[in-house]
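[Discussion] Sanity-checking designs against the backbone

I'm trying to build intuition for which residues belong where. Below is a structure token string of 49 positions. I'd appreciate it if someone posts a full sequence so I can compare it with mine line by line.
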């Protein structure tokens, strides 16, 4: 909530890198989940049980 934050330049660079890494990881995870969902959905759509 802003109580603790990096003060040094190296700390700020590290914090930015961690933030970008977290956003990228979340985006990759979401894209993988959506891709798998679409594969299952399309398989059931074309080959109904």
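Best answer:
Here's mine. Compare freely.
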């Amino acid at each position: 909530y802003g109580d603790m934050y990096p003060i040094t330049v190296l700390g700020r660079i590290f914090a930015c890198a961690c933030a970008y890494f977290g956003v990228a990881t979340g985006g990759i995870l979401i894209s993988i989940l959506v891709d798998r969902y679409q594969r299952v959905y399309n398989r059931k759509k074309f080959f109904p049980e």
